[in-house]
Amino acid sequence: MTVSASEIPAAAGIISVRNLIKQFGRFAALRGVTADFDAGKFHAILGDNGAGKTTLLRALAGLADPTRGTVAILGKNPREACREIGYMAHPSLLYDEMSGMENLRYFARLYDIAGDARCQQVIRSVGLDPELSRPIGQYSQGMRQRMSLARAILHDPKILLLDEPFSNVDVHSAQEMVGLLKHMRDAGKTIFVVTHQAALLEGVADEFIWMQAGQIVDRTPQLSAEHSGAGAQ
Amino acid sequence: MKRVFPILAVLTGLLLAYAFYEAIWVAPMERTMGDVQRIFYYHVPSAWTAFLLFFVNLIASVIYLIRKNAKADAVAVVSAEVGVVFCTVVLVTGPIWARPVWGIWWTWDLRLTTTLVLWLIYVSYLMLRRFSDSSQTPKLAAVLAIFGALDVPLVYFSIWFFRTQHPQPVIGGGGSIDPRMLHVLLINWLAFSCFAFLLSWARYRLEWLQREVEEAQALESLLGDGLAAPTRAPLDKTSSRTGPQ
Amino acid sequence: MNSIKFLYAAYIATWLIHALYLGTMVRRYSRLRQQKKNLGTGGK
Amino acid sequence: MSSLRSITLATLAKDIRLEWRSKDAINSMLFFSLLVVVIFSFSFDPNAEESRQIAGGLIWVAFLFAAVVALNQTWARELRNQVLDAYRVSPAPANALFTAKVLGNFFLVSLLEALMAPLFMIFYNLRALGPAWQLIPVALLGTWALVVNGTFFAAMSLRTRSREIMLPLLLFPISIPAVQSMVEATRIILSGDGAARFWIVLLLTYDVVFTTACLALFETVLQAE
């Protein structure tokens, strides 16, 4: 149920979610999530499989229309605020037959970004070589995740929504990516990371959001702080 | 509300019986075709009712696309399904009528062929609803309904011109019709329309029940996981039974 | 003229189709009512 | 709006480059169409006059099946890594993607037809009695009618369980007037009796009506989740 921008409360932080319910036929993925998130914070979203983490992230990205309730990004409907949203999903969201540079050049065009400068800069920032001509299909999983992250930050969005960015990535690459995200958070970006490797974000994330059965059950500043609901791996 | 349904059912039954009586005895026998022409009083009203139902489906689909309310979607499902049933009746009685009169089972007659194409379109509509189980099925179905409606005039004209190229016997005969026959025809149409309304109403209640059960099962599957979620789901406590979304 | 047979065939066919449809509706209705009762008692 | 055009061209260029690089779709299409033509030729052995009457139907049914196989591939590449999500999150308009995909399919299917038509001519040793040049607009308008709806329904059937079978189930009923127009127009042109003008006008109307409907409703289908 898309809601016109006027009905959404403006002042409630950069992102505000009101009683968000998402139902896929018989399965209720989100059962009434209500939350506000401030700008420039690094949020880690944790929880078991099926807790609704990915669905929440997709709802924030405007990919999943809420069955009931509202989602506001910068006071607007997620789709209206899409220039400020960078989304990275478990699959790479890149064309396997094209090289990293070709992929980014195409996506840059979708964001009206001309020239290769920005693409090269972003590829270097994730620690890859822009001249690498091998198609993405032949990248290692770690390199593919980095290129996917590069695509997500290509248009310099204020908000980053990353779904399992470190999954089956070697520890070294993962730590490098965490460092990059930390650097972006310090530069003022708002970052959401859905992950099962919470330990990587210890001391980096400003807030840990615990989800369970389609609901946010707790929000703690530290990972180890007492909390209810699902344990973190 | 509950009592109205049985009353309407009885009334419709009486009306149908009366219409049947009119069709069999009262209506004058057609000179050339004889009594078999009386199939006309079931064949044509069923077609009109089917077209009416498909029109309702179009309206409901457009309303759903604009306002996204579940009731319009339910009406769209119901009108499509009952419409297909009436269309099937037309497609079955047509050949049964053509066989004795022209000795052929099927004629690419304008009205009959249009009905056939409509039947194909709305069966594919129902298939789409059954195959796509995502929460966005209503939206996809509404789009397809609009495509189907846009197709109808094109189907009609293409077959009409095709008919002028290859003239073939026309079911139900063109030209003027004996006023008494017309009278019986209209009574039958009224009877079938009431019957269609009754069927739709029952099917609508069935659809609503299905959605309620589906939603309850969805909640059940989450709560039933035995998770002692500290914050009770607000859906249970605060929001009243506002009916399925 | 055996065309009368076709007349009856057409009328019967019409009501047969409607009866079949009503039958499926009744069957679905009872199945759903059963599911709703199961939900009430929390059993699956 | 320049961005709509530039994104459409960029998407089209990307598709053509990918297609040129792998060429898997075009090869399988070609071979499939050849099989369809040969099988149709085996199953009918008409003399000259008969072949002119039924050739129209055979050719277009063969093209229809070849087109459906091509249309089923339309979104294959986007599905592999859920690239559609990247497109949906971007500010790029949905119609740019749709137009690019339709144009891509149109070139692919037209290429198939251009290669298959001579085969039909040979197998059925057809010689058009009527104005043969009119076959061009019929083929172009007819192919566009199949491709624009086909691409739209291919996108729609992405959301369904059995994707491959869903596309023809949705496409064929809606395309009946278009297919009938193509077949009748071809038959008239080949046999030379009467004018195919009415059918060409009907095809044009069909194209205009459904291209507008597709452009208006594609956003709803793409974003449906």
| Outline of chain C | rod-shaped
Q: How helix-rich are the residues of chain B, as a percent range?
A: over 70%
| Oligomer category | heterotetramer
Binned strand content of chain B: under 5%
Derived from helix and strand composition plus strand pairing, the structural class of chain C reads: mainly alpha
End-to-end C-alpha gap of chain B: 22 Å
Compute the number of strand runs of chain C.
0
Explain what the structure shows:
The complex is a heterotetramer of chains A (233), B (245), C (44) and D (225). Chain A is α/β, with parallel strands linked by helices and 233 residues long. In chain A, 24% of the residues lie in helices and 25% in strands. Chain A has helices at 53-61, 100-110, 117-125, 141-152, 171-186, and strands at 15-24, 27-37, 42-46, 68-73, 85-88, 159-163, 190-194, 207-212, 215-220. A 6-stranded mixed beta sheet of chain A has the order 5-6-7-3-8-9, sandwiched between helices. In chain A, strands 2-1-4 form a 3-stranded antiparallel beta sheet. In chain A, a hairpin with a 2-residue loop joins strand 1 (15-24) and strand 2 (27-37). The model of chain C has no long low-confidence stretch (mean pLDDT 85). Chain D has 9 helices and no strands. Chain D has helices spanning 2-22, 24-43, 48-72, 76-80, 83-89, 94-123, 135-157, 163-191, 197-222. In chain D, helix 7 packs antiparallel against helix 8 (163-191). Chain D is globular and about 55 Å long. The model of chain D has no long low-confidence stretch (mean pLDDT 88). Chains B and D meet through helix 4 and helix 5 of B and helix 7, helix 8 and helix 9 of D.
Using brief descriptors, characterize the structure shown.
heterotetramer; A: 233 residues; alpha/beta; Rossmann fold; six-stranded mixed beta sheet; three-stranded antiparallel beta sheet; 5 helices; 24% helix; D: 225 residues; mainly alpha
